[in-house]
Amino acid sequence: PHLQWEVLDSLLAQYGTVENVEQVNTDTETAVVNVTYATKEEAKEAIEKLTGHQFDDYSFSVSYIMD
Questions:
Q1: Could you tell me which residue ranges the RRM domain spans (predicted)?
Q2: Per-position pLDDT tens, the chain of length 67
Q3: Global pTM?
Q4: Domain 5-59 adopts which CATH fold?
């Protein structure tokens, strides 16, 4: 089972105003999602809090994509 979008949205919203969430198609079982926060500070907090985060059976790997 995949992580539901509503659950992911509420998790991401804990760290700031989410302006955009876009799933990137990959050829693997790993889901890749690009998230845009309103500020760099919010993005930084999300990266710090979610890197290595375990949620149900899911593990998060988070990184920053330069503008």
A1: 3-57
A2: 577 889 889 999 999 999 999 988 878 878 888 999 999 999 999 999 999 888 888 888 888 887 7
A3: 0.81
A4: Alpha-Beta Plaits (3.30.70)
CB 12 within 8 A of CB 20: no
Q: 60, 52 in Cβ contact below 8 A? A: yes
> What does the H/E/C string look like for the chain?
CCCCHHHHHHHHHCCCCEEEEEEECCCCCCCEEEEEECCHHHHHHHHHHHCCCEECCEECCCCCCCC
Tokens at 10, concatenated: 């509420």
Q: Tokens 């690009």 label which residue?
A: 34
Cα 1 to chain centroid distance, Å, stands at: 18
